[in-house]
Design goal:
Blueprint: E1 4-6, E2 23-25, E3 30-33, E4 47-50, H1 54-62, H2 74-83, H3 87-97, H4 101-106, E5 110-112, E6 115-121, E7 127-133, E8 139-141, E9 160-165, H5 167-175, E10 178-183, H6 190-200, E11 204-208, H7 213-228, E12 232-236, H8 244-249, H9 254-261
Parallel strand pairs: 9-10, 9-11, 11-12
Antiparallel strand pairs: 1-2, 2-3, 3-4, 5-6, 6-7, 7-8
Length: 267
C-alpha cells in the first residue's frame, strides 16, 4: 500500500470520524485508525481497517461516539518498530534536531509513519509507553501509553547522572557525557525518577531545568521530592539557552558544561 494521506476536517478518518492522527491509503481505501482496534495492528500503534468500518456505522446509528478500551503492549510495539527502523530517516531527524544519530539510537529512538518515537520506561526499566514527535515538533504519546522516563537502553555507571526534560534533551545530555534521566515534561514522574536513581545506586544527581518559568518551577518541586528521598541535588540551567539540546546545537562541549556548572550548590 502506498499513498498514505493524513486525515483532515474535510477528509476525516472513515473509522473513528476524527480529523487528526489517522491516515487513509489513497490507492486501496484502507484506513490506519489510531483509536479504534481491529484484528490487524500495525507498527505505528494503529490498526488497519478495510473501507468504512462497521464500528463507525454503529457509532453513527447510535449517535454516540463509543471509544473502545485501549491497551498498548509497549514492549512489543517498540520491538517491532526497532526491527523496521529506517536509518536514513533517523539520520534526517538527527540533522534536524542537531543531535548525533548514535545518541538517538542509544535512547531507543525509532521511526514510524514519519514520526520520531522514543520508549518511556517505568522505575524498573521496563518500557511502558511510546512518545512521538512529528516534523512540526508536536509531541504526543501512542494511545494506551503510560508515562515514564527516558533513559539509555544500557546503563553506564561511570557517567554522572542528570535529570532533564524530554527524550531529545536526554540524548543531548548523553552526547555531553552524562547519564540521562528524561522526564516527559517539567512536572510528574517523580516516583519513576526516584526508583530509577535508586536502581542505579545514585545518591547524588544534577537537575537541569529548562530556561523558562515552567521549567524552573518544575525543578523546584522535584528538588524537594528528591531531597525527601535522601538524594543530594544541584539545580542548574543550560546557560542562556532554552534547553540542553539548544546548548548542544550552539556548540556546547562536556568541558564547557561542566565548567559552567562547577559552582552550583549541592543541597
Amino acid at each position: 500500500m502506498t499513498g498514505w494521506i493524513k486525515v483532515s476536517k474535510s477528509n476525516p478518518c472513515k473509522v473513528c470520524g476524527k480529523s487528526d492522527w489517522c491516515t487513509i491509503s489513497s490507492d486501496t481505501g484502507f484506513s490506519c485508525c489510531m483509536r479504534v482496534q481491529s484484528d490487524f495492528p500495525i507498527a505505528n500503534g494503529g490498526w488497519l481497517h478495510k473501507g468504512d468500518s462497521v464500528i463507525q456505522k454503529e457509532m453513527m446509528r447510535n449517535e454516540k461516539p463509543v471509544t473502545p478500551a485501549h491497551t498498548l503492549d509497549a514492549v512489543a510495539w517498540w520491538s517491532a518498530a526497532r526491527r523496521a527502523i529506517n536509518l536514513e530517516k533517523l539520520d534526517v531527524w538527527a540533522e534536524r534536531l542537531g543531535i548525533p544519530c548514535s545518541y538517538l539510537l542509544f535512547m531507543g529512538a525509532t521511526t514510524a509513519c514519519e514520526m520520531l518515537c522514543f520508549p518511556m520506561r517505568d522505575g524498573t526499566g521496563k518500557i511502558c509507553g511510546i512518545r512521538t514527535r512529528n516534523i512540526n515538533g508536536d509531541k504526543k504519546a501512542i494511545t494506551g501509553s503510560k508515562a515514564g522516563v527516558f533513559i539509555p537502553g544500557v546503563h553506564d555507571a561511570d557517567r554522572e547522572p542528570i535529570i532533564c526534560e524530554g527524550p531529545t534533551d536526554a540524548a543531548s545530555a548523553m552526547a555531553l557525557g552524562f547519564e540521562p534521566i528524561g522526564r516527559p515534561s517539567c512536572l510528574g514522574c517523580e516516583v519513576q525518577v526516584i526508583d530509577t536513581l535508586k536502581r542505579f545506586g545514585n545518591k547524588t544527581v544534577t537537575l537541569c531545568a529548562d530556561n523558562d518559568g515552567p521549567g524552573i518551577n518544575g525543578a523546584k518541586k522535584l528538588l524537594d521530592t528528591l531531597r525527601a528521598a535522601r538524594i543530594s541535588v544541584r539545580v542548574v540551567t543550560p546557560g542562556i539557552h532554552k534547553d540542553l539540546r539548544d546548548w548542544l546545537k550552539a556548540g556546547a562541549t562536556s568541558e564547557i558544561v561542566r565548567n559552567q556548572w562547577s559552582q552550583a550548590e549541592w543541597r
